[in-house]
Amino acid sequence: MPKEPRLAVLVVSITICVLATTFVALRFYSKSVIGKKFQHHDYWSLLALIIDFAFSFSLFYATAKGLGLPAADIKPENRRSIIQATFTFTVLYCRPVGSVLQPTLPATASCTSVITLYLSSAPVNIITDIAILFLPMPILTEMHLPRRQKIILMITFGFGFFVTVVDVIRIVYLQRALTETKLTSQSTSIHSGSLISISSYAALSFMWSVVEVNMSVICSCVPVLKPLFARIMPRMIGVSGKRLGRTTGAETRPDEVSAVGYSTNIRLTATDQVNNSGPRGDQAGSSDEVGSDDSADRAVLRRLELSGVRSVESHAGAGFIEFVRMKKPKNMLKLNNRQSLAPIAIITVVFWLWGFSYGLLGNLGNHLQAVLGLDAWQSLGIHAAYFSGYLLSPVTLGRWVLKGWGYKATLITGLSVYACGTLIFWPSAVLSSFPAFIVSNVIIGGGLGVLETAANSFIALCGPHENAEIRLNISQGIQAIASVVSPLLSEEVLFKNVTNVSALINAQWTYLSIAFFDLLLAATLYYLPIPEAPDDDLEQIAMRCRGDGSSKVVGVPVIWLTLALGVGSLYLYVAGQEVLATSFESFVVTSLPSSNLTSFDYVTIGHTVFAVGRFLTALALWFLKPRWILMIAYAGMVIFSTLCLKTSGLTAVAMGLMIYLFESGAFSTLFAICLHGMGKHTKTAASLLAAAIGGGAFLPFLQHAVSTSHGVSFSYCVLVAIFSTGAIFPLYLNLVPAAKRQVDPVAQTYQNSHQQASPVEADMSHGGRESHCSGGILLS
After folding, report:
1. Which pLDDT score, from 0 to 100, does residue 218 have?
2. d(Cα 625, Cα 646) in Å, to the nearest integer?
3. 3-state DSSP helix/strand/coil percent for the chain, to nearest 5?
């Protein structure tokens, strides 16, 4: 970077400011001369330009006074002017507000670092930019329009992408400014000379802020310039010169042009496509004769005469519905094994995503703790914040979206919230803010809670009933593989040299990449054929499998008792899983202080065993009932947790790795079991089960407290107690007949097999495979 970037700052800032002014002028020309009508948003655009110019002028003035020069070259009498010009538009920067303009800072006043302030607001800017960019795209891409017009329309709205790009570039210079001055605290005086000492970086940061604001003004003008482009380049947007002349001629009233205008032309084009009646003389590149063009124009005018302008306006809602393609999603409950492969593969990509990103974020979190000097309790606090996000989001946001709009909307919502949390996590590390870490982890956990509400239940429901546990274990196994690969990649490549704040800043691009990938995946999911599961069909399948559902245990309907015990067991299982995850490295160091392998190596081995165990569980489920598998899993967890207490050295570490093995299939099997027989309440059950993942938040504190007072090995008594309590659920499933009937899968049960009047008929018609109703598929 040049030592004196003032020339670049002035040239870029003035150029973009002039360009924004030009676009606003073109907007007013298009609306006043061609459209003959102003609307309220045009006046807001003018106000935005005025504020934008004042903001830009403040940078011009500060640069003229020396902003951008090396600190030693800035005259002392100009420093106050630079500070005042720079902070004029930073609202609530100081307390009290007026102290920012005073020659000296009063002892009672305090001011936030401007670099910190800008960097903290960056994620919000990116989130809003991306939201504005993506929200109109679904409607635009599904409009009944000629391909050329549709592409032009999408490009027009896609100009918002440049604002996002500028925002990212701006953050680069903000990070450099932060690194240059080592501003790792949350508060610093504006009169301390910090701004002057980073004059070069500050000037470039402010320049990109001006570019961002001006780009926003430009993008707000582009969509309303269609009449101007229609006059200058009519063939490019599919409007003939004859049609344009009639549209803008004196015989057409201005109010009709503004009232009908573009939407009327769109509706008639869509009607022409549907009816296939006559040539379309209004398309660009048409080779029709002039007479054909006239006949097409007469047909258009005839339709206007028959329907009337008022008719078009009064049926605007109906026109919009015709204008946008409305596709009904498939029913996942009607899919057999072969038909369900494609949608399951799509959702398994989501499993891979959160497994991979979870590993990256978790590993970088360990580096953050080392760099920031967090103690064990603070580290557990960040861990608890992540799992706390699960406690509320599934039963509030997740259930609401899933019940109201279905699986596709819930997956997109979860990915979007997760991306927002990742973007907030990004500057949190740069600013070294522990509270910001807490907030970002809560949001990340909340996003994953919504995602798991949809993804886990989707895999369990998409396809035949008897294979739900198998499908979910395979998908979760792929997620576990990603959790193994990503820590290795981050430890050996991405975050290998992250030992200080400066290196930590460079690692933040991983967070931005994760966020953008999440959003791209969410946009992709919108256009993919994601099937749905209607509540009525879920209830129909449940009634065929469990009868009328009137069975009760201790006076409580069996489906609700099963769900309550299942949610409690899942809460305890995740708590035990996270107790092991947060303590296993310490356990290895205590048991094998002189091992050739590091504790990270043993954790990687544990994660690998965990991933393999999920595929082994899927294989075992082909032969054994799910409730048997769950009982075996809990028995293994209790036994090997107890052995960790009683052994030492390599044997104790091996027992810990066996816990990983028996843990592996418990989650997926338990989740799918609890959905059996829930009928129209299946989605509510899925949200409660996803909320139970929040069990990983609090019990690791108890284990750490016991470890501090009695040693790591003894602290595994907490693990034994957790798993022993959680084992009540599989005991209930295997001992209560009504629970057995509810959760044992019925062979070949999916919506297209409704000819099966009862499980008894299914047994008679499927020969050997009927044994899965009363035992395994091959074992009865």
Report:
1. 85
2. 32
3. 75, 0, 20
DSSP 638: H
HSE, side-chain direction, 13 A CA sphere, residue 492: 9
Tell me which residue has tokens 């599989």.
Answer: 730
- Count the neighbouring beta carbons within 10 Å of the beta carbon of residue 541: 23
Amino acid at residue number 387? F
Domains annotated for the chain, with CATH where assigned, are: 5-182+195-232 (no CATH), 335-533 (1.20.1250.20), 542-746 (1.20.1250.20)
As a whole number of Å, the end-to-end CA separation of the chain is: 75
Q: How far apart are CA 207 and CA 49, in angstroms?
A: 17
Report residue 532: phi and psi, to 5°: -120, 170
CA-CA-CA-CA dihedral for 542, 400, 483, 581, to nearest 10: -90
Nearest Cα neighbor of 645 from 597, 707, 687, 694 is: 707
Structure tokens at 458: 């989707």
In the numeric block, the tokens 């020069």 are attached to 69
Give the pLDDT mean for 680-684. Answer: 94
Q: How confident is the model over 479-528, as pLDDT tens digits?
A: 999 989 988 887 777 666 666 665 666 666 777 788 888 888 898 898 88
Instruction: Of 420, 416, 423, give the one whose Cα is nearest residue 509.
Output: 423
d(CA 150, CA 269): 12
Work out the angle between the directed axes of helices 509-527 and 407-431 (0-180°, nearest 10). 170
* Tens-place pLDDT, residues 536-555: 888 888 887 765 556 888 88
**Residue 457, class by beta-carbon neighbours within 10 Å (0-12 exposed, 13-18 middle, 19+ buried)?**
buried
